[in-house]
Design goal:
Layout (H helix, E strand, L loop, with lengths): L1 H21 L11 H8 L6 E4 L10 H15 L7 E8 L2 E7 L8 H12 L3 E5 L3 E7 L20
Parallel strand pairs: 1-2
Antiparallel strand pairs: 2-3, 3-5, 4-5
Length: about 160
């Protein structure tokens, strides 16, 4: 049975390797790409103003950059047609992201998507009925320094 498991794993690895050769991983979008994202909303008839780039985007951790981009992408893609504004500000070890003019993003399926994005980055997100999404993305991820350390028992199989 162990030999079959090893053979199956080897075949899976080979398949994944072949798939990666056919479909190489594209680079993840980042905060610096927000200008381009917001410009694409313009030709669709929606005016989107962006503030705080590039000064707020310089040197951000990859998780923060990708999360901010994905949150803006989801909020702007919720279906609103009026003007919107995306604002980034770096302050006290966090990126403050504010998206206004996105009423459909603060109530409905997009709201849950934004919550999941925020949770993955250990961020806090709030939704205002006026159509504003606010997110506070910590620049340092990982356990809080105030959190108690968890001890892990050594494995009996080690």
């Amino acid at each position: 049975m162990a030999a079959e498991a090893r053979a199956t794993l080897a075949a899976m690895r080979e398949l994944l390797h072949e798939m990666n050769d056919v479909h190489p991983r594209s680079p993840q979008p980042a905060v610096a790409d927000l200008d381009a994202l917001c410009r694409t909303a313009g030709p669709a008839g929606r005016k989107v103003t962006v503030r705080g780039i590039p000064e707020s985007a310089a040197g951000l951790p990859e998780l923060v950059m990708v999360t901010a981009y994905r949150m803006v992408e989801a909020a702007l893609g919720a279906g609103d047609r009026g003007p919107a504004r995306v604002s980034l500000r770096r302050r006290r070890g966090a990126l403050h992201l504010t998206i206004t003019g996105v009423r459909l993003a603060v109530n409905g399926p997009v709201t849950e998507h934004l919550r999941v994005q925020a949770t993955a980055a250990q961020a806090r997100v709030t939704f205002e009925p006026t159509g504003t999404v606010r997110a506070l993305l910590p620049l340092r991820t990982g356990p809080s320094p105030d959190a108690p350390a968890q001890e892990v028992s050594p494995s009996p199989h080690a």
